[in-house]
């Protein structure tokens, strides 16, 4: 038996309506001079409130605003700022890319890390993993971190304020866990991986049952199940299942699609969701079974209700000529890509054909809601 180091979960997770208020004392025990890292102007007022709350507690927080997606340029600047000011912790408050940046800065400095997701768009608040992008938002690589965050604060009253589009994106990213892990890890003999795959199936079922109501009504019980499922359970599945449980084709296709230019930039889960539709399309082409076809149409119908893109035409591409699309497919199918872990052969030509041939059969997609 080989030895595996597994990073299952944050040291502490506080979730619920008043999670932030109930975490203040714990934060006091974790750091005295934290750096609050964030990005979007739209959420700056939330970070200001968090900062003032900490000052009231006698903590000395500093702020750092990131300029781009989680990129080396920003991380280097925040690293230097944090080091020069002797910060003893990072509080990352934002969406997935801000959380990834905060975790990586803390990891590089070997200081404490607290994640405060401001939306349910990904499980980045939970995991010991950061995705690195270029300043333009092109995916470069993912980095494994030494550990999961020291504290994850999932405050319902804060997350509920996020646009419903972020929840839909989180749902697409979370349902991907089942379709990706079952494709690559079904034959695993590792009990933990088997359990993680089953947990991903239960999560998918709950998202199918509750996702639409949660999307429409942030005050419903469904919203709590779905938001926690996307941000917490999805992270736990990745923690127990490990890298093999995370990706098949949908995430590598996402990585390729981030190489394109968009007029309106899609969210992580929006690209993963489309990648998932393509994964099932490719599976259908490589199988005599009707199951991938049925799964694809079930998923496309569900995604359409959440106003998630299900065809390349649903994205507001700035430049989508065949050459650009081919480059994106080349990136997704690089030699070391996880796309080659699926049990059939995916080449860049096959992927390009899938992107061109899979067309949206649902007419109710409305970009104006974006
Ligand atoms: Zn993801």
Description:
It is built from 13 helices and 10 strands. By secondary structure, the chain is an alpha/beta fold. It folds into 2 domains: 12-159, Rossmann fold (3-Layer(aba) Sandwich); 164-361, Dehydroquinate synthase-like - alpha domain (Dehydroquinate synthase-like, alpha domain, Up-down Bundle), CATH 1.20.1090. The strands form 3 sheets. It has a 6-stranded parallel β-sheet with strand order 1-8-5-4-2-3, with helices on both faces. It has a two-stranded antiparallel sheet with strand order 6-7. Helix 2 (44-56) links the parallel strand 2 (34-38) and strand 3. The model has no long low-confidence stretch (mean pLDDT 93).
Q: Which CATH top level class of the largest domain fits? A: Mainly Alpha
Shape: globular
Strands across the major sheet, in which order?
1-8-5-4-2-3
| Strand content range | 5-15%
Element pattern in H and E? EHEHEHEHEEEEHHHHHEHHEHH
Main sheet overview: 6 strands, parallel
Unique bound compounds: zinc ion
Keywords:
single chain; 370 residues; alpha/beta; Rossmann fold; Dehydroquinate synthase-like, alpha domain; 2 domains; six-stranded parallel sheet; two-stranded antiparallel ribbon; 10 strands; 51% helix; binds zinc ion
Summary of the model, kept short:
This protein is an alpha/beta fold and 370 residues long. It contains 13 helices and 10 strands.
List the helices and strands and how they pair.
Blueprint: E1 12-16, H1 19-30, E2 34-38, H2 44-56, E3 62-65, H3 72-84, E4 89-94, H4 96-109, E5 112-117, E6 129-133, E7 139-144, E8 151-155, H5 156-159, H6 164-185, H7 191-216, H8 221-241, H9 250-257, E9 261-262, H10 268-285, H11 291-305, E10 317-319, H12 322-332, H13 348-357
Parallel strand pairs: 1-8, 2-3, 2-4, 4-5, 5-8
Antiparallel strand pairs: 6-7, 9-10
The chain binds zinc ion.
